[in-house]
Design a protein that fits this description.
18% strand; elongated; single chain; alpha/beta; 2 domains
């Protein structure tokens, strides 16, 4: 069932705010965005984030539900990026983890955590334990520098700054009304009342 077009205000134009604005505008809604920063997203976390799409690696610090969302996003990101007018770098070359000898105990602890994740979520690509030759084959610039490593196939990386710029371009193309350098508070809005937007997303 297709929803009737609505007027929607979004507070914050970081990564999530921009993705929401683009998707809602594509669905025919009237979208207005307020952000304390500018198109470069200088006040958002995304410009300085690592931009890794690494569900198995991140399982060391998060719960299985988040890992499954990350796993799903590996199929979703290429679809979303392909729909943008401007190109955004994205690859799925996997994650390579190496460590110095003094960190061996911590590396072993990490390996056990990742093995536990793979038992819990068995459809994740299998982690590979590498010797020195395996590390060199995976990343030639590390040849003879590390005697062992872990390789997590299929994990991805994207250029988050390119992505933010491409989304800003897409918002402009879709006629999303962007109010840059204009912080607003949710309490300033009364969605659903006369003269106000139908929905407010903070």
């Amino acid at each position: 069932m297709k929803l009737q077009p609505s007027s929607i205000v979004i507070l914050g134009a970081g990564l999530m705010g921009r993705l929401l604005a683009v998707e809602l505008a594509r669905q025919g809604h009237s979208v207005e965005v307020f952000d304390s920063g500018g198109p470069a997203a200088e006040h958002a976390a995304a410009p300085i984030a690592a931009a890794m799409v690494a569900p198995l690696a991140e399982s060391a610090v998060t719960e299985p539900g988040v890992v499954r969302m990350g796993q799903y996003s590996l199929t979703r990101w290429p679809q979303m990026l392909a729909a943008l007018e401007q190109p955004v770098f994205f690859q799925q070359e996997g994650t390579l983890i190496v460590w110095h000898r003094q960190d061996s105990a911590e590396a072993q602890r990490l390996q056990r955590l990742l093995e536990t994740t793979q038992t819990t979520i068995p459809d994740l690509p299998a982690m590979q334990v590498l010797d020195s030759a395996g590390v060199a084959a995976a990343e030639p610039t590390l040849a003879h520098r590390f005697s062992q490593g872990l390789y997590l196939p299929g994990e991805g990386q994207l250029d988050n700054r390119q992505l933010l710029a491409a989304l800003a371009h897409e918002m402009d193309r879709l006629q999303v009304r962007c109010h840059w350098h204009t912080p607003r508070d949710p309490g300033e809005f009364s969605p659903g009342t006369p003269g106000q937007a139908d929905w407010l997303l903070d």
